[in-house]
## 1
Amino acid sequence: MKFKIDEIVSVLAGEIAGFEDRLAVTQVGKVIEVGDGIAHIYGLRQAMAGEMLAFPNNVFGQVFNLEEETVGAVIFDDYTAIKEGDLVHSTGQLLSTPVGPELLGRVVDPLGEPIDGGPAIPTTQRRKIDVIAPGIADRQPVKEPLQTGIKAIDAMIPIGRGQRELIIGDRKTGKTAIAIDTIINQKKFFGTPEEVICVYVAIGQKESTVAGVVDVLRRYGAMDYTIVVNAGAADAAPMQYIAPYAGCAMAEHFMWQGKATLCVYDDLSKQAQAYRQLSLLLRRPPGREAYPGDVFYLHSRLLERACKLSNENGGGSLTALPVIETQEGEVAAYIPTNVISITDGQIYLEPDLFFAGIRPAINVGISVSRVGGSAQIKAMKHKKVAASLRLDLAAYRALEAFTQIGTELDQATQKQLDRGARMVEALKQPQYQPMDVVDQVAVIYAGTQGFLDTVAMGDVARWEKEFVEYFNASGAAARSELARTRELTPPLEARLVEVIRHFSNVTTLNKKTVEGIDLKPLDEAVQQLRTARS
Ligand SMILES: Nc1ncnc2c1ncn2[C@@H]1O[C@H](COP(=O)(O)OP(=O)(O)OP(=O)(O)O)[C@@H](O)[C@H]1O
Ligand SMILES: [Mg+2]
C-alpha cells in the first residue's frame, strides 16, 4: 500500500488546526474535603461565583468561594452522599429555580422540588434565583394599596404594592399571623384585576409549624394563589440561605407578567444564621456578632427586588414582608438594624401588648410605613377616620400613664380615656378574620366619632361584629357607594352616620347612658394633667 504524503499531511494539519487547547480538567474538579454541607474542590478553574455544580448521585451545589487553588462550594442535598475524591462537574449555569403558574398551590423546596407529597410539577420555565433588582428607570412610585385586612395596619401603617415592610418582634408575638392574615385577605381579589399572587417562604422553621401554616392557607382557600417555599430547620444551611431568593424569583416571574405579587420571608434572622454558618465553615472572616462582612448585602440584594414596575414594564409589583425575630426586644442588634434600614418601614410587635390581650400586638408608637400612605384609599385618610388615629392613640397612652399614678380625674378627661380605651378595643382583631377596608373605615369612624362611647368595654368586639353585619345588610347601599368611590364625601358621611345611628338604636349593646359632656382635645387633657402634677 502506498501512502500519499500530501494526504497524510493535510489530515494531520486539519487535526492540528481543529485542536482546542481547552483541557476538560478545567470543567471537572475533585472534592478534596467535604462536611457540614460544604465542600472544597480542586480544579474548576473557570468556575463562576454562584455557578451550579453537579456532584455524583444527583447532588447539586453552588460555588460560594473562589480561592487561588480551590473552590469552596455549598451542597444543597445530602452532603453525606459525597466523599473525598468524587468528581464535580461545573454546569456553566448560575443557580436557577423552576417558575410558573404550575407551582401555585404547591409546597416546594428552594430548588422547586415538591415536598407536599404531590405529583411532580410540570414547569417549563426557570429563573435565576439571584438577579440584579430593576433599576430606578424601570420602576414607578408605589401607588396602590396592598390591603392586609388588619385594621391597625391598613389604618395606621398602610402598605403599598411594591413596598418592603418589615414585621419585627420577639418570639411568639404574632409575626407569622400578620403575614398569613395578609395572604388570606387576598382571597377576595383572586381572579379580579386586583389579584395578588403570594409566595410564603419559610426559613428554618419546624416542619410542624410550616405544615400548620399550609393547612390554614388551604382551609381558607388561599393556596389557589399561593406558593409555599420551605427550607426547614432540619434542612441543610445552604437551602435556608437560598430559600428567600428562590421564592423571590418565583414571584418575579408573575411580576414581569404585569401581576401584583406578595413575598413573605419568614424569617430572615434564620437565613442570616444559616449564612453565618456557611461563611464560617468556608473560613470567611467573622465580623460583628460573628456574621461575615457582607451580611448586609445578603438582605439588601433580596429586598431591593421588591418594587412597582413602570407601566412600560407591565406595571407588575412585588411587595415584600420580611420577618425578623428580636431577642428581648433588642432592635439595635446587628441583623435587625440592618433590615430596618433596608425596608420602607416596620410593624413592631411587643410581648407586653400580646400578653395584655392586645392582638395584633402592634406598638403603634414605633411602627411606621414610609411610603404606603400615598397608596391608602381616600376614605381611610379622612380626618375623622384614620388621619389622627395614631396621634390620638399616643395621647391616650400618655394620658393613661398619668392616671396610673392616681391623679384625680375630671369627668371630661375620664371620658377621653374611655374613648381611647374603646379605640384600642376596636382595633383588636382575631386571627384569620381579615376585614374589608370599607368596613374598617366605618368601624374606625364609629370609634373616633364617639359612637362606641356608650358601649361597655367588654361588648366592643361584639358591637363591631354585629355592626359590620348590619352595614353589609341594611347599610348595603351606602356601603357599596363607599366601596365604589373609596371616598367619604360629606353626603356619604351623613349616610354612614345614619346607618350607625340606626344600628345603635336596634342593638342591645348600648348599655351605658350618654352624658352631655363635650370632649376636650386630648393634648389639652394631657397638658392639664401635667400642670396638675407639677
Ligand atoms: N391576632 C391574634 N389573635 C389571637 N391570637 C393570635 C393573634 N395573632 C397571633 N396569635 C397567636 O399567638 C401565637 C403566636 O403567633 P405566631 O406564631 O404568629 O407568632 P410568631 O411571632 O410568628 O412566633 P414564632 O416566633 O414562633 O415565629 C399563636 O398561637 C397564634 O395563634
Ligand atoms: Mg412565626
Note: Residues 237-255 form the longest helix (19 residues).
## 2
Amino acid sequence: MRTMKAPVLLVLVLTVWLNSGDCAPSSFSSSSSCSSPPSQWCSSLDSAVQCGVLKHCLESNFTRSRQTADPVAVALYYESLCPGCRMFLVNTLLPTWVLLHEIMTITLVPYGNAVEKPDGQKYTFECQHGEQECLGNMIETCLMNKTNAIQIIYCMESSYDVIKSAQSCLEIYNPDLKWDEVMSCVKGDEGNQLMHQNAMKTKALNPPHKYVPWITINGEHTEDLQDKAMTSLFTLVCSMYKGDKPAVCGGTQRVYKSYCHNE
Ligand SMILES: *[C@@H]1O[C@H](CO)[C@@H](O)[C@H](O)[C@H]1NC(C)=O
Ligand SMILES: *[C@@H]1O[C@H](CO)[C@@H](O)[C@H](O)[C@H]1NC(C)=O
C-alpha cells in the first residue's frame, strides 16, 4: 500500500496545480474518463462530455461561428535559448493566446540567428547559443510537426532547463505521442528538412530580421508593431481584430493580471 500512495498523491497534486493555474473550476478534468489534453477537449462532442466541459465548448463553438473576420496572425521568429525570446513566449504570447485564441493564430519559427550550410543532401546548423540551442530548436520543430505543440513549448521554455524538461512536458500535455517518435525526427532526415524550412522562412523575412524575438503581425513587421507586441500584445490583437471583439477585449484592463480570491 505504501508504495502506491506517493504516485497517486503526485498525480492529484499535479492535477490541482494544473487547474489552479488558469482558475478553472475543480470540476474540470475531474472525470477519470477524460484522457485528452486540454487543447483537445472541445475537438469532439464525446471528449467534451467526458471531460465535463460540454457547456464551455458549445459556448466557445458558438462564439467561433459568430466570428466574421480573419484571425490576427502572430508569428514569432525565435531561438529556443534566447532569454528575450523565452520571456516573450512565456510572459506575453501564451497568456495572450489563452485569452484570445478565438481571434488569433500563432506561428512559431525556431531558428533566428542560426546559420545553415548544405552538406550533401542535408544541412548542418550552427546556433547562436550553441549546440544545445540547435537541439532545443529541433525538438520544438519536430513537436510542432507531430502535434499541437504550443503548450508543450510553453512548458519547456518556462522551465529551468529547456532541453531536459522536454520529455516531461510532452508526457504532461500529450501522453499519446511517444518521446522516441519525436527523437527519431530530431535525429533524422525529417528534422533536418523541417529545420531547413525554418531557415528558408526566416531568410524570406522582409524586412530581414535584425534580432530575435522578431515578430510579424499578419505577415508584416514594422518597428511600431514590434514595440506594441512587446509591450502589450493583448491590446494589439484586440485592436487589430476586425470582427466582433470578444468580451475579454472590452475593458482597458489586461485580464490575466487579475487575482483569484479565496472567498
Ligand atoms: C465544435 O466545433 C468543431 C468544428 O466545427 C466540431 O468538430 C466539434 O464537434 C464541436 N464541438 C462541440 C462540443 O460541439
Ligand atoms: C510534417 O512534416 C512532413 C514532412 O516531413 C510534412 O509532409 C507534413 O505536412 C508536416 N506536418 C505538419 C502538421 O506540419
Note: Residues 42, 44-45, 48, 57-58, 61 surround 2-acetamido-2-deoxy-beta-D-glucopyranose (ligand 1) (CB under 6 Å).
